[in-house]
Design a protein that fits this description.
Blueprint lengths: L14 E2 L2 H10 L2 E8 L2 E11 L3 E7 L3 H7 L3 E14 L7 E12 L1 E2 L2 H15 L12 H5 L1 E7 L2 E7 L17 E4 L29
Antiparallel strand pairs: 1-9, 2-3, 2-5, 3-4, 4-8, 5-6, 5-10, 6-9, 7-8
Length: about 210
């Protein structure tokens, strides 16, 4: 939901109001950044996350004062940005990027009990689809050391920049190339852990991670 705080005013034509488009951006990324103010100092934390319906889930250490502050309801800003390409214009001023981004404002709530384990499953399956059922479940001491936080998608904005260069008319007759350069993120070859104690074939679902 767009609020006065999340209304896009600069380049408003790039604003996206469709929750399905917002979800598509969140589902396409694996890394977010979360802000929190501690003792008057702003901090921005990189976090792995997963989306569960109309909320995003992420986790951190119970030993972290910043995550404890988030768990206590400190206001936060959660952002995701996908860099899709470079927009190469005829001037430095008009050169830019192709991107998709989401910003969420609000406060987090800590998740406990069985819901905590299920939230960790959601995060793991978002990062590494198919992996949860292959690995050991979290131990009690591991759960105790982990804060799992939920942030509702109630106050948000999304922007998508994918247009061609918008050059100044005075530059159109110059002998300078203009266009876009896509940026592609792909998985590379698998590398065995050095401490594998027996020959183990990589699971078939790893192949599904590669577009």
């Amino acid at each position: 939901m767009t609020s006065d705080r999340t209304t896009v005013r600069r380049l408003a034509e790039k604003s996206v109001d469709d929750p399905a488009a917002r979800n598509a951006i969140l589902d396409a990324s694996r890394l977010a950044h979360v802000s929190v103010i501690d003792d008057g100092t702003p901090f921005v934390l990189p976090v792995a996350y997963g989306r569960d319906g109309d909320q995003v889930l992420f986790h951190g250490s119970t030993a972290s004062r910043l995550f404890r502050s988030l768990a206590e309801g400190a206001p936060t800003c959660f952002t995701v940005t996908l860099l899709d390409g470079l927009l190469v214009a005829r001037s430095a001023f008009e050169s830019s990027m192709h991107y998709r981004s989401v910003m969420v404002l609000g406060s987090c709530a800590a998740i406990d009990g069985d819901a905590k384990v299920e939230a960790l499953r959601t995060i793991t399956e978002h990062l590494m689809p198919g992996r949860w059922d292959d690995v050991r479940s979290p131990l009690a001491k591991e759960l105790a050391a982990t804060l799992v936080l939920a942030l509702p998608l109630t106050e948000w904005s999304a922007k998508v920049g994918n247009s061609p260069p918008d050059d100044n008319p005075i530059d159109l007759d110059t002998a300078v190339w203009a266009g876009s350069v896509p940026i592609l993120t792909t998985f590379g070859p698998l590398t065995d852990a050095p401490d594998l104690r027996m020959p183990v074939e990589p699971p078939a679902y790893l192949k599904t991670w590669i577009p």
